[in-house]
């Protein structure tokens, strides 16, 4: 009983204004707001700049209108930033504090661009390193404790004992800077 059949409304607030109250009508799913389901909606609005809060709630109508909301993620198509608004509470007159609307601040807005930058770096690193995981490649890692090589073979075998005289092994020093 964590989903709702009530009409759900959202207002999005940014540095350049707000959307006003908008009913979330057309989900990409046949039935909206079911327990454990992620619904996706398109909301047309002028660009609001950096988002800082939303107000989300429902009209309390219909049977089983109480709703447990985990979070809302808004993707800004202009900046390609994702804004996350954590809730993890009930919007239900008979549960929690009895409110059917919640004002949710953005989750640490200063960190979101940094996370996206980190994700971009991860993608670039994977693009540079994925050749190592192609079919037929044997990976070798030098183990400083055993002073031998640990080999990961294409057929999923692992030689963890480390052959100290592996003629193909090369020792590389790797430095990590923070």
TrEMBL record:
PROSITE patterns: PLAT. SUPFAM superfamilies: Lipase/lipooxygenase domain (PLAT/LH2 domain). InterPro entries: Inner_ear_hair_cell_LOXHD, PLAT/LH2_dom, PLAT/LH2_dom_sf. Residues 1-105 form the PLAT domain. It comes from the Eukaryota. This is LOXH1 protein. It comes from Loxia curvirostra.
